[in-house]
Structure formats: C-alpha cells, structure tokens
Amino acid sequence: MSLVTDADKPTLYKLIRADIEKRILTGEWPPGHRIPFEHELVARYGCSRMTVNKALSELAQADLIERRRRAGSFVRRPQHQSAVLKIADIRAEITALGRTYGYELIQRKLRTATSADRDRLGVSKAGKVVAIACRHSADNVPFAVEDRLIDLSSVPDAATADFSREPPGSWLLHHVPWTEAEHTISAIVADERAAEALDIAVGAPCLVIDRYTWRSARTITAVRLLYPGDSHRLVARFKGG
Amino acid sequence: MSLVTDADKPTLYKLIRADIEKRILTGEWPPGHRIPFEHELVARYGCSRMTVNKALSELAQADLIERRRRAGSFVRRPQHQSAVLKIADIRAEITALGRTYGYELIQRKLRTATSADRDRLGVSKAGKVVAIACRHSADNVPFAVEDRLIDLSSVPDAATADFSREPPGSWLLHHVPWTEAEHTISAIVADERAAEALDIAVGAPCLVIDRYTWRSARTITAVRLLYPGDSHRLVARFKGG
DNA sequence: CACGATTATATGTCTAGACATATAAGTCAA
DNA sequence: TTGACTTATATGTCTAGACATATAATCGTG
Lengths: 241, 241
Known about the structure:
Two copies of one chain form a homodimer.
Chain A: H1 12-25, E1 34-35, H2 38-45, H3 49-61, E2 65-68, E3 72-75, E4 82-86, H4 90-96, E5 101-112, H5 115-121, E6 128-138, E7 141-151, H6 168-175, E8 180-189, H7 192-198, E9 205-215, E10 218-228, E11 234-239
Antiparallel strand pairs in A: 1-3, 2-3, 4-11, 5-6, 6-7, 7-10, 8-9, 9-10
Helix pairs in contact in A: 1-3, 2-3
Chain A binds a DNA duplex through residues 9, 11-13, 37-39, 47-51, 53-54, 56-57, 67-73.
C-alpha cells in the first residue's frame, strides 16, 4: 500500500482503483464525497460488477473509502497523523548502518515477581520473571541500554535461554510468534547510572522507549530502551492528514 | 485491520480468513510455511475458488501472507517493530483529554526563503515562506511550542490565513488534502528560550518532533514541536514481531 | 553437469448471473 | 409532528465456470 504508483501490470480493477485513488489524493474528491455507485462504474468501465467491487473493496480495506449499504461509498476523512514508525531490531538497525554491532549482558536475574514487577508487566498474580539489563553498541560506542522484564509464565523457555550471547529482543523475536505491543516514547535527562552506561554526561538528553508486549492477552515482556537523545532519532513516515 | 476478532457476521470467506490468521498468529504456521493451495481450501470448505481467493487476497493485502504464482501462498515473516504512531492534532489531543485548549500566536513572518529556510524545506529555488512560532496550552499550562515554516509556492492561501486565531496545523489540515510526511523524534534539553516558552527549567528534557510534510513531491510545511519530556508521551500501538 | 526448452500448475483476473441484507427514503396512521 | 411500517436500492457474498500468465519442475541436449 504505497502512495507511489505500483509499476505492475495495470489490470482493469487496478486501473479503477488507481483512478479513484488519484481523485482522492489530489483532493478532487474530498472527504465525505460520495464516489459513483458500483453500477455507474460498471457502465463507465464496461466491466462486470465483481470487477469494480474488487477495486472498491481494496480501497475500503486500505481505509481510503467507507462503504455503507444502501447509501454508497464515501471518501474517508484522513486519519490525522497516523504514522508508521519502524523501530527495527537494534542489531538489524546497527548492521544496516554498516556499523559493527556489539552486545553486552550487564545483569540477569531470575526471581519471583515483586509488586513493582507485577505493576510493570500488568499482571496480578505472582510468578517467576527474568530481569535483564544489557547494552547495545555500534562500533564499540554505546548505542542503547536495555532494561527488560520477561514473564516466565508466558515464556517459560526464557528461563534457560543464554542471554549472555544473544540479545533478549532477538531471542524473543525468534521464540515468540506474533505479538501486539504498545510503545511509549518520552524524554528524560541522564541520571548517573544512565550516563555511565551510555558514556554521556549526566544531564544529557535521552530518548526513552518503553515497550510493553503481549500476545492474545498474555503479557510477554516489558522493556525500557534508553538512547542518547542527540545521536538517536526515530523516523516515522506516514500518509494522511 | 485489528488483531482483535471483529464481531461482525462470520461469512464464509471471513471464516476462512480468520482460520488462517489464527494459525499464523499462534505460530502454528510459522513464517515461510506454505498454506494450503486454493483448491485444497476449496475442498476443505466446500465452496468456490473465488471465495477462498477473496480470503487469501485480503490476507495478502494485509501483508500477512505472500502469494507466488505456481508456488503457492506463504506466511510472511513479521515486519519487525512496525508501529502505528497516532500523533493527533494537538487541539484534538488536548480536548480529548477533557482539558481546555489554549492557543497563542507568538510570531508570524512572511519572507523570501533564506538559505536556512530552503534547507529546512528541502527546496532549491527561492520563494516566499511564512514562518510561524506559536504555543499550545492545556488548562493554561504550556503544552507544546511550535516552530513552523510553510512554503507559499505550494500553499499560496497560507499568506492571507489568520493564524492568530487558528493554529496553523489545524488550518493546513483543512486546506491541504492528502499529504505524506516524515517524523523525526528526538530528545534535547531545554535551552533558555524553550524553557521560558514551556515554563520549565533550563536543562529539563524535551521531546522533539520534527515533521516534514509534502504532497506529490511538493513541499508543504516543516514543523518542529517541542514538548516537555517528562509530561508528554507518544504512544504507538502495533502488531508484528 | 550445465543450460535451454517444454510442460504443468497455482495464482491472477474476469464474467454474468444469483440471493441476502442493511438501511435510506417514502408512506401512512395516530 | 412523530412514530411505525413498507419499499426500493446499494452493497455483501457467493457460484461455476473461463482464459491469462508467471514460474517451478521436468526433460533433453550438448
């Protein structure tokens, strides 16, 4: 679903879809505008209804239009500022930049969840957790520090995983299938501990990503990533509004 | 496209789609797994090929599977950490929190683009721009300061718009149709000017969003939003990896 | 064995119908 | 005017076919 025109063979339904998409994107058909009925498009393009239906269904799936029975199809108002933020796996991110990835486990503890742990994971009953602190570096320069909690009742294998060689993020990526997550991004200034871990000055700005991951209502992990704020940037590209 | 099961009437193609989706999400069919051929699904569900085709096409459009001619359909590997970041219009964001929105224009200048302006907008030839500084507040507490540049060769109407009453973000949202944008998120510490504008201490952490907006290759606006880092949070929800 | 030609096959697109169903709009009575 | 009922209609889903086309697999040949 990109805005640039796909360079594939223009079949009829794709032509119809592209025609409509263009009118929406240029503003010719503003939000709320009723686009022609299926039977009108059938007449205009001289094809069967299933063909225009496929074009319209795809536009609906892409949230560009809204379809209402008996009423017709309407241009949706753009979802203001809904951006796609690509937060790559840190190792992948660093190697993609052509830099050498380094990883260092600072601490690993297996313990019964404290009340603070339970709060952080959003679970009510006590269970075992693994707490991990580690550091990622690029060309031997600290890149980010990670502070993670894994719920062992959801991911029992994590108890025996060797996190001294493999970053827990990568390990989880390969051992836990599809998940949902919530990111919270904020800014703080480095305290003494963070400053030392990132090799920056106390009081320097840091970008913080708190990620909370679950899978079908089961908590998996909560992680806080701390980046030097001046050297790291999150880029999000989007369309709409 | 949500992960939670839609509570709409389970038609046959939706059932097929949900069945497959569940197997992918639970990891029963891992990335790379070849899902049954259309003719096999036709036999299993006792329906026509168009019905299973519709289910598979939607899964393909949602990037859950990849379809290859002659080879079959395959579970795609999750796109690591691709998050949807909803950055609401500031006014909408504040009023949604049940707080009173306040807006104050600090400065508006119409000028021929300086070389710094051209750099920031990513345009090569000189033209007129509007430079705006303004402040958003919630319950009379500073919420964010905005520093914006609008390219008048793309949005001539902005020259005469009254930005003393309407925030430029809202104005643009209603006067410029679909756009593309790129956000860059970083952290800085407040300098004296920022500290005064946000009523925070010099050296306090700030979250910075730089947004660069264009429409079909034409630059529209570049804006920098500065939030107090401890009180503001960006939340992104996502699925995958 | 390497490489080019052939073939088999799964998906891609499309048709001309059908019936289902939600709902906007019109109708009529209180 | 309002509320309840009816009707018309646009979309939603589905079928049983058809031909197109990209390409994996096979087969032959040098």
